[in-house]
Specification:
The complex is a heterodimer of chains A (202) and B (172).
Chain A lengths: L4 H9 L3 H23 L2 H17 L10 H19 L11 H15 L5 H17 L3 H12 L4 H8 L3 H18 L1 H4 L14
Helix pairs in contact in A: 1-2, 2-3, 2-4, 3-4, 4-8, 5-6, 7-8, 7-9, 8-9
Chain B lengths: L2 H12 L5 H13 L1 H18 L10 H21 L1 H21 L5 H18 L1 H11 L1 H4 L4 H12 L3 H8 L1
Helix pairs in contact in B: 1-2, 1-3, 2-3, 7-10
The chains are: A mainly alpha (202), B mainly alpha (172).
């Protein structure tokens, strides 16, 4: 029978290194992806994800299962990522939704002219635009969107990670998605009105 | 529900986590509000667009690097506690070994063993030197017997004069 995350962590607390390996195996990819969406750069995301696991390991003796393991894990990850961004450690890796878009526009135009010739370039540009728009969100909105959309966490859990009520979170998410809808209007618009992304809309 | 109230429930309605009451309220509003209906459609497309961004896989060296970091930050605590012990143990072993070696040394060299009695004999000779010198004096005493009996006694110290350093030894 598979042990729960909390049980695994309690086993780690009791000195079982193998349980730590299991938790690492289970959450390494989600954590790296969460942090990658927070700081943009994969190397930086991996560095932070390792720091998260390191803190979990260090705190194993004091661990008490007061919340879901993932809530605890992502709260550590969120705090680390936000501190790193505020410290400016990964500032150079962030994308401003305004400035880089101006630089990207000619590329997108070129890509639009060569849609059939270079689909991968378009896809890359689209991904960059989406990631850039998410990164440009205010910190709390960004965390909420990533946890909601990509980690598919429930409102209660995201609220506990961010330290806000469920209704405040719903309002936060609405504002965040509204901003993204406007910023990514080019991609979100109806397929008929967007020749460049025609083939990409599902 | 009005547009403002719908905005708070729209996300949970779209992701399927709204309560039955919320859901029916939103659906009712969307039927009559084209703007909110359009926004709801765009939110759905936005989520589809966001889903296009592929997930990344942690690099091959992720686990190894993590283990390295854990070893570097956690084990040093053990090391700082343990490292002096081997050194201390090595020092103690070296000290014990050295003392054993040193204690075994006197039995090994024959020279040292033989030198002890020699020096003892020498010490006895030096100790008895005064007696021997006195013995010389006494043994030469026959020569003095030729002298007149009255003069013999006062002259005795004069006879001893040249041997004064030796006699000093004998007296001491």
């Amino acid at each position: 029978m598979a042990r729960s995350d909390v049980q695994l962590m309690l086993d780690v607390k009791a000195g079982d290194e193998l349980s730590f390996e299991l938790l690492l195996k289970k959450y390494r990819t989600p954590l790296v992806n969460f942090l990658y969406r927070m700081v943009k750069d994969q190397a930086a995301a991996e560095d932070l994800a390792q720091e998260v696991f390191l803190r979990v390991y260090r705190a194993r003796k004091e661990y008490s299962p007061s919340a879901k393991f993932t809530t605890w894990l992502f709260r550590i990850a969120t705090n680390l990522a936000l501190n790193a961004i505020r410290d400016g450690r990964y500032r150079q890796m962030q994308i401003s939704i305004d400035a880089p878009r101006d630089e990207d526009e000619p590329v997108i135009e070129i890509a639009a002219q060569e849609t059939r010739a270079d689909d991968r370039l378009i896809e890359r540009e689209r991904n960059e635009m989406i990631r850039g728009a998410i990164l440009a969100l205010p910190e709390k909105q960004r965390v909420a969107v990533i946890l909601h959309k990509y980690e598919e966490m429930d409102y209660g859990q995201i609220g506990r990670i961010l330290g806000c009520s469920e209704s405040a979170l719903k309002s936060l998410l609405f504002r965040a998605y509204e901003t993204l809808r406007v910023q990514l209007a080019l991609l979100v618009a109806r397929p008929a009105a967007q020749p460049a992304g025609e083939g990409k809309q599902s | 529900m009005n547009c403002e109230k719908v905005s708070n429930s729209l996300i949970s309605y779209l992701d399927g986590r709204a309560s039955a009451e919320e859901r029916s309220g939103v659906e009712e509003h969307l039927k009559s509000c084209a703007a909110c209906r359009e926004r709801a459609d765009e939110f759905r497309r936005l989520w589809d667009v966001m889903a296009e961004v592929p997930a990344v896989e942690p690099s091959f060296a992720f686990d190894a690097r993590l283990r390295q970091r854990i070893a570097a930050t956690v084990r040093p605590k053990l090391w700082t506690w343990l490292v002096p012990s081997p050194r201390l143990a090595a020092a103690v072993v070296a000290l014990v070994g050295l003392s054993i070696f040193v204690s075994m040394q006197p039995n090994k060299p024959v020279v040292v063993g033989n030198s002890a009695p020699n020096s003892e004999e020498q010490f006895r000779m030096i100790k008895d030197l005064g007696v021997l010198e006195n013995y010389d004096v006494l043994s030469n005493f026959d020569a003095l017997s030729d002298l007149p009996g009255v003069q013999a006694t006062p002259e005795q110290p004069e006879q001893q004069k040249p041997d004064e350093p030796g006699s000093g030894n004998g007296e001491s």
